[in-house]
Specification:
By secondary structure, the chain is of the alpha+beta class. The chain has three domains: 3-123, Rossmann fold; 134-150 and 220-347, D-amino Acid Aminotransferase, Chain A, domain 1 (2-Layer Sandwich), CATH 3.30.470.20; 154-217, Dna Ligase, domain 1 (2-Layer Sandwich). The chain is built from eleven helices and 17 strands. It has a seven-stranded mixed beta sheet. Strands 12, 13, 14, 15, 16 and 17 form a six-stranded antiparallel beta sheet that branches.
Length: 348
């Protein structure tokens, strides 16, 4: 019998649209001769549906208009071990493993992973604790620093912080600096601030995306990333990539349109330094308890120092995204990446 894989897409997140693009690509790459697929769509409002329509409607955000959606819930009951479809006649779909393709909050932060683990359904990707830790930029940096890995200087800002305190924090970190929601992705709510006059507004904007906000020093140099797959000591690592910026920072527009920036894979750095970046990525992956797959993002300074930025436990997953690109650079195809992740998730 084929094993049934649930793929979750959409979600209550600023990154809803990105999730749809990733999910369509993942669903199109799954080997249907080996696996049955249960497509679970989650609207921006948090409504769950079992979807059975065309894949193209997912990426175009027309999946709710296809007339192929039935309300459904993922049951935490281990006897159910799957999805309860709430149509005219209630039915059950047994799930062997689930792959959340849900970027950002309510999908990448341990919430859905916790539900799946409670239900006894294997998660393809990072588990509850590592997902939550990696989403929390402050705690992730603290753990990395304890492991001896370089991190940016930062300070968490309380809601309603006074102008005097904010001014002192800005002067301590120096300008330019970054203002970031502690929990978030795709650079939503992130601002690069070059002077104090812009700092209060940037902090207010970040609080629109999260209840916690971080001020972080600007690290000179450029960003490098590394894709990691696997569990424990059985890890596969991709080629290092490099983000080349002509201006600003790698915000949402640049990440998904590359208007003034470019991604180089492999990175244009010496082989010895690339190996050091890969080793640092492996250390961070293990330090934060990652499993399945993740993309580790770091900075490389002009002096050659490696500084941790963040770990994306559900990175962008189209054939043109950074995570698959780094693995394709070492000889894997996009379908091979997706189906290997599923096979390893079923064994975990």
């Amino acid at each position: 019998m084929k094993r049934c894989i649930a793929v979750l897409f959409g979600g209550c997140s600023d990154e809803y649209e990105v999730s749809l693009q990733s999910a369509q690509a993942v669903l199109g790459a799954i080997d249907r001769d080996t696996y049955d697929v249960c497509m679970l769509g989650i609207t921006r409002q948090g409504r769950w549906y079992h979807y059975s329509g065309p894949l193209e409607a997912i990426g175009a955000d027309r999946w709710r208009e296809e007339g192929r959606c039935i309300p459904a819930v993922l049951s935490p009951d281990r006897g159910t071990h799957g999805v309860v479809v709430l149509g005219g006649q209630v039915s059950r779909i047994y799930i062997d493993a689930a792959m959340p393709v849900l970027h950002g909050k309510n999908g990448e932060d341990g919430t859905v992973q916790g539900l799946l683990e409670l239900a006894g359904i294997p998660v393809i990707g990072c588990g509850t604790l590592s997902s939550a830790l990696c989403m929390d930029k402050d705690r992730a940096h603290r753990l990395a620093a304890q492991a001896g890995i370089g991190v940016p200087r930062s300070a968490e800002v309380p809601r309603g912080v006074g102008e005097t305190t904010l001014r002192l924090l800005g002067e301590e970190l120096g300008y330019p600096l970054f203002v970031k929601p502690v929990n978030g992705g795709s650079s939503f709510g992130v601002s690069k601030v070059s002077e104090f006059s812009r700092l209060p507004g940037a902090v207010e904007e970040a609080f629109c995306h999260d209840s916690r906000v971080l001020l972080e020093e600007n690290i000179p140099g450029f960003e490098v990333g590394c894709a990691v797959m696997g569990e424990g000591n059985d890890l596969t690592i991709g080629a290092v990539d490099e983000i080349e910026l002509s201006q600003g920072f790698f915000d949402y527009t640049e990440k998904y349109n590359l208007i003034t920036s470019a991604i180089h894979v492999p990175a244009r750095i010496p082989a010895v330094k690339a190996a050091e970046v890969q080793n640092t990525a492996l250390r961070l992956y293990r330090t934060l308890g990652c499993s399945g797959f993740a993309r580790v993002d770091m900075f490389l300074t002009p002096e050659g120092r490696i500084v941790f930025n963040e770990i994306n436990t559900i990175p962008g997953f189209t054939a043109h995204s950074r995570f698959p690109g780094m693995l394709m650079a070492v000889g894997m195809t996009f379908p091979e990446i997706v189906n290997r992740l599923i096979a390893e998730g079923l064994k975990a």
